[in-house]
Amino acid sequence: MTDSITVTGVVGSDPRLHVTTQGLAIASFRLASTRRYFDRAKGTWEDGETNWYTVSGFRQLASNAMASVHKGDRVVVQGRLRVRAWENGEKSGIAVEIEADSIGHDLAWGTTVLTKVRREGAGEGGQATATGGPGESGESNAWPGVEQQVAADVEDGSDPATDGLTEDFGDEDGDEVDGAREDRPRLEPVF
After folding, report:
1. b/e 97-116 (16+ beta carbons within 10 angstroms → b)
2. pLDDT tens digit string along 121-179?
3. pTM of the predicted model, to two decimals?
4. Contact (Cβ atoms closer than 8 angstroms) between residue 30 and residue 54
5. CB-based contacts of 48: which residues, under 8 Å, 6+ apart?
6. Read out DSSP for 124-157?
7. What is the structure's pLDDT at 12?
8. How far is residue 42's CA from residue 136's CA, in Å, rounded to a whole number?
């Protein structure tokens, strides 16, 4: 039986990359997830206990996590839960691990920009033209027309992220648009 779990939390360590002797890339990091609850007597939100997980991603997910996830980021992780006992000399304990299928930034806390990654292909020509998105690996596209619209926007030179904005990042009526930034810096979490 496989236990599926989805956890939101704060990345507690920068990801570490391990490569097996067979060439399998594995990225792992620590994730802290703290339950919040409303204390009616105090009338305030309080922090509960913090659960710590070791998150591991494999292959392309490992490469993407190394480039995208940093200590302090708020993320959402979905994968399989593994709980195992360990011993190391006189020390022993329980390890709670998540073998991740998906890792992403928690957009309730900030914004992010997705950059599709081209994969090396095993077919003729040496490099695949697919970027690994939905519909490109034989699976059905969950959002029909989205990729085609993005491709059309790129071909006509428009940018869907800035359409309707003037050079000073106000809208066409001259009103400033909150959060619009040309350089799109990496957001730091606010605690």
Report:
1. bbbbeebebbeeeeeeeeee
2. 544 444 433 344 444 444 443 334 334 444 444 444 544 444 444 444 344 444 444 44
3. 0.59
4. yes
5. 34, 35, 36, 37
6. TTSB-S--S-TTSSSSPPSSTTHHHHHHHHHHTT
7. 94
8. 53
Calpha distance 162→111 (Å, rounded): 15
Please state whether beta strands 16-19 and 44-58 pair in parallel, antiparallel, or not at all (unpaired): unpaired
Classify domain 1-107 at the CATH topology level: OB fold (Dihydrolipoamide Acetyltransferase, E2P) (2.40.50)
Residue type present at position 87 = E
Helix (H, G, I), strand (E, B) or coil at 18: strand
Cβ atoms within 10 Å of 153's Cβ, excluding its own = 14
Kindly give the residue spans of alpha helices, DSSP state H, lying in the chain.
Answer: 60-68, 146-155
N- to C-terminal Cα separation, the chain: 37
Comparing 90 with 150, the larger pLDDT belongs to 90
- Vertex 163 angle, CA 162 and 164, to 5°: 110
Q: Alpha-carbon distance 97 to 13, whole Å?
A: 14
